[in-house]
Amino acid sequence: MQRLTDLFKVRWFKLVFSITFSLYxxxxxxxxxxxxxxxxxxxxxxxxxxxxxxxxxxSQMPYPLWGPFISITSNYLDWAITPLSLGVSFILSFLxxxxxxxxxxxxxxxxxxxxxxxxxxxxxxxxSLSCSCELFTALIGATVSNIPFMISIGFMDTLGITxxxxxGIILTLSSLVIASEITGSRPFSWMRGNYAIAVAIILxxxxxxxxxxxxxxxxxxxxxxxxxxxxxYAASKRLRLRGNPxxxxxxxxxxxxEIVGFPLMVPVVSALxxxxxxxxxxxxxxxxxxxxxxxxxxVVGWTLIMPGPISLILGQPIPFFNLVGDQAILFWITAWIxxxxxxxxxxxxxxxxxxxxxxxxxxxxxxxxxxxxxxQFPWQWFLLGGVAVVSQMLFFMTHPQDFLDYxxxxxxxxxxxxxxxxxxxxxxxxxxGYGVYELIRDRYGIPRxxxxxxxxxxxxxxxxxxxxTKMLVIAPSGYPYPPILLLTYGExxxxxxxxxYIPNIIGFYIYPVSLLALISSSLLAGYIWALVFxxxxxxxxxxxxxxxxxxxxxxxxxxxxxxxxxxxxxxxFLASTYAQIGMTLLSLSLLVGLLVYVLRTSKGTCDLKK
Length: 610
Description:
- The protein folds into 2 domains: 4-11 and 83-365, no CATH class; 443-601, no CATH class.
- Helices cover 64% and strands 5% of the residues.
- The protein has 19 helices and 8 strands.
- The protein has a 4-stranded antiparallel beta sheet. Strands 5-8-7-6 form a 4-stranded antiparallel beta sheet.
- It is globular and about 65 Å long.
- The chain crosses the membrane at residues 12-31, 84-106, 118-140, 160-180, 192-210, 216-234, 246-265, 271-288, 295-314, 329-351, 379-399, 411-434, 454-475, 509-533, 545-565, 577-599.
- Keywords: Membrane, Transmembrane, Transmembrane helix.
């Protein structure tokens, strides 16, 4: 079976991906008012103006126009550019284009392997329904600036970030699931009934976090109904409960009673009724025919979704009892967010139902006319990662007050800037790391190792790393702050940070750069040690030497970076702010060099370039 990335070498796939990417990128820029197409009167003789100053103070700039700013103005358009706006536009456009292209690839496979004449038509319908859900999801991330109400800039920015994250998560999950359908892999095969309780706990916790106001009434009903259904699912698997179709109508009656009694409903009673409705509803839902279950999921999901887009199109919200204006808009937008994963799940299950019932194809024997695979230098990952990291470091050096100075700045602004910049730097480092992985895999291959040995090595090195870099402190004392302390804004990659400790027992200090270094160095060192143990276990001296050498970069250099960062003054930017990042990169480089050496000298690998 060839890799999924080989699809990008198919001509029609590249064409669909490129067109969809370009159209959505332009769509996002226009709808989010990053690009304004209008007649602009410039001074006589001036045709193009490039400006690096924001039109209002930086703390008042709306999301996603945060960061190093540049605007390009002509007589026909005004385009405001920041690394964050370009990054969000690029990521969402990439995910939308990937989803559309993967859906078409899956539909083509189903069409080529149909055993029933209706399979192609039903597959097209299912593909359209499911893919349109992703497009609606992507639409949410671009509509914030067009929402016809303004509570505050801070609220609008928070809503914009939330909608963008929701869109990104749903689109990413959809890409993984559709890719698994095409290749035959099962990335979520471990999610069985044993994990239903964990899902139920997450839903119950979400309910506690949802504000107890009428604006979020429908969202609370949906959340608790889903929690009740998941609990009933877990109970039915363990206790082998049998359902009855009448229970579905009992559930529908309870939900209807809640909605009709909305103005008088007490939150506690509503939560209890929703939980019961979800539990009995699942027991009735499970007895229905597959096509009926899928139809119900679609009805529920799209009923929650559609009032949001309709309200945006009309320019005014659809009233719900006494909820009007901005309350009604927020009411339907939150329902839109909750309905999206339900409709997406229905579309995915519909495609799986058609595949299992009317299609006969083997993912291991795909015939998409893929060209022979050729190894190429993955320059794009290094370029994207480098731009993300360097741009944010330069922005912090030139605008430290946007991260550190609370005097005169909105706390939400400082927190949002810190989080956004930290996420961009993290994403850039991950992209660079992936580029290194691609280089090594294309040159030497990645041998399989024992999961047991790998896990043991990762845990050991992880603990050593945490102790050496003071992420973990044994028996802390004399610390006058609360047991849990959050630092929500500050230097990118050093904030957000959290301190958790039990006096005289154990303490943790975790911040992004330390967590990223911990994960990457532990995984690298664990893989190196497990591979050496697997290939040289009969040579104890060699194995011991490699154990010491591997521990040196991951713990020794990181500890040195920590000491340097602790001793220098705060005014020394180069030493205090990014000295540890430099030491971390150096230690990871040494670990990568060790990995290459081990791969070259292992019996189970060879140089693929020779």
